Amino acid sequence: MTEDLTRTTSPLELDEAKARALEEKFDSEIRFRPLVPFAARLVGALLIVLSLFHYYTAGFGLLSEVLHRGIHLSFVLGLIFLVFPFTRRGYGAASASSLLRPLGISLFDWALAIGAVVAVMHVPFIPLDELAFRVGNPTTTDVVLGGVLVLVLLEATRRSVGWPLPIIALLFMIYSLYGPAMPGILVHPGATFSQLINHLYLTSQGIYGIALGVVATYVFHFVLFGVFATRIGLGQLFLDCAAWIAGRYAGGPAKISIFGSALFGMISGSSVANTVTVGSLTIPAMIRLGYKRTFAAAVESASSTGGQITPPIMGAAAFLMIEFLNLPYTTIILAAIVPAFMHFFGVLVQVHFEAKRDGLRGMTDEEMPDLKEAFRRDWPTVIPLVVLIAILLSGYTPYFAAFWGITLCIAVGLLNPRRRMSITEVLEGLRDGAKYALAVGAAAATVGIIVGVVTLTGVGFKISYIVTTTAAEMATWVGTVVPAAWFGPQTLTLLFTLIMTGVVCILMGCGIPTTANYIIMATIAAPTLGMLGVEPIVAHFFVFYYGVLADITPPVALAAYAAAGMAGADPFKTGNTAFRLGLGKVLVPFVFVFSPSLLLVTADFSWSNFTLAFLGCVAGITCLGAALSGFLLVRTLKWERLLLTLAAILLVVPELISSLVGATFILPVLLRQYRSFKGTPVAA
Questions:
Q1: I need a labelling partner for 109 at 20 to 30 A (CA). Which of 125, 264, 542, 641 fits?
Q2: Residue 137: CA count within 13 A, CB half-sphere
Q3: 536 within domain boundaries
Q4: 242 and 286 belong to one structural domain
Q5: Residue 543 pairs with which residues in a beta bridge?
Q6: Phi, psi at residue 419, to the nearest 5°?
Q7: Are 653 and 595 spatial neighbours (Cβ–Cβ below 8 Å)?
Q8: Distance (Å, rounded) from C-alpha 246 to C-alpha 243?
Q9: In terms of domains, do 377 and 344 share one?
Q10: What is the distance between the alpha carbons of residues 419 and 334, in angstroms, rounded to a whole number?
């Protein structure tokens, strides 16, 4: 971008080109193989066309449901085979064009791309009255093309996302075909191959289902808005604001990382994008200040995962909730406010305690940005975000709000003399925005296979029965050990169900992206919680919140590995440390299940219940953070860590006696800490 030469440089100057390069380096979902110039221009043009298609339909009206989703998926799958190689060796030098490799791309990949487009677009062009007749009576062509689509979809997902999700989809398909051979309660009549393809291909319960629809209707537009908002300078303004808020305090750069990620998360639902953009500035600053490289990278990645739950943009899962729960987006935004706050508070608590423990200083006045200059320079960049939020709150559709947000971003970029964008840069923004759609689009369509099998076989209800029965048995056993006045049997059953659900969410996150994790768990686990009386929005937020941990859960941990690469740290250690930092808010979902008022929009909301739940949550997070970091007022002893951990757990459960017991566990710790604090100097 061209800029006014008189502009004052911020001490935390964001190099957008460097951030984009880092993101492409560390985010496998947007890392394309090298292409010869003409192929690169062709791919760039197709990406721009995809963005323009979504931009136009967002402002002037969507196409019919199946046609809109079909066009989106045909672009996604066709492009994936052009830009993602069959193996990692394809990321080397660009292959020269030849008879067997037109434009440097193998004939095999061209065949897959063409086959994918043909298979996808077959269904949208079947007349609706004829399609209704063919559902349940597929033709041979339907079965063949449906089988082709399943195969190319699994391969496209493998290339862009990795092995775990396609393997899970394959296992679900095998389950549907071999139902009579399944053990115990999992047995079912089974489906023929034709019946399975019919359900996955011709109905809205499978590949063309809700998951793909949300990505094609909502997610794409907000990702594109985030790309343009960052490029016109809103990300830089957020970083300057974060530095002004937190930079001068102990461990300043680490706290800037948290506040910066929270603000940047308002316009970006991508954990990796948050990590490389904010981390390109905060990670080196943390290392200079004395933080270990592993911890510096972990702080940034743990903070950046919160972008997916930070209103108003959030991540793809938030838009999926609109369809799953049939609620307006404004309701989802309101419900996300407190969980988002608790996420960043949980990381902040541990960072603060670690900074105090190690005596790490804040930033000096010379290192701080000039906030007045920052606003004087970048105030126009706030206009698109304000307008987008206003349109959302006015009751219009999210994609219409995104349309005007994108339009105003482009207008500000073209007209703002201090950060002027060229037409070429606008086209680059359209191109780069579409890059994010490829992997998430393939993943969403593949998750449609899993959802389709669940609806075809009814396995979700069987899993729910297994989980609730197991939880009830565990509750009965614990009830013989723990005094009945502490926990009722129903509370214990729900507690164990939540624990098992949370563990499964985390384990699923070890191998698949957060959006896919949420869809699977919302399909299978959310009904389980509903059987125990949990409100639907509360159940969905529970699995959503835990699913966010996927980006910092080894062995995948995309955000943690990106941060580790920038910091020169060990990726696995960074992932483990980031996961530990994320544990500070692991109690939050339990709190809003037992005290739904924390989500602000539940049926039994009251300010008294909200206040008690909020304060209990803050206290529990603080106790757990102190236990994990080994510091409160002074370094904690082993017995203090144990008591703080037990107190944190007990404060979650809304039983009066258990809460009082939790409070009594804290008292001896506070007493010992206060006495030691008075006699021990602690770094400011």
A1: 125
A2: 5
A3: yes
A4: yes
A5: none
A6: -145, 60
A7: no
A8: 5
A9: yes
A10: 33
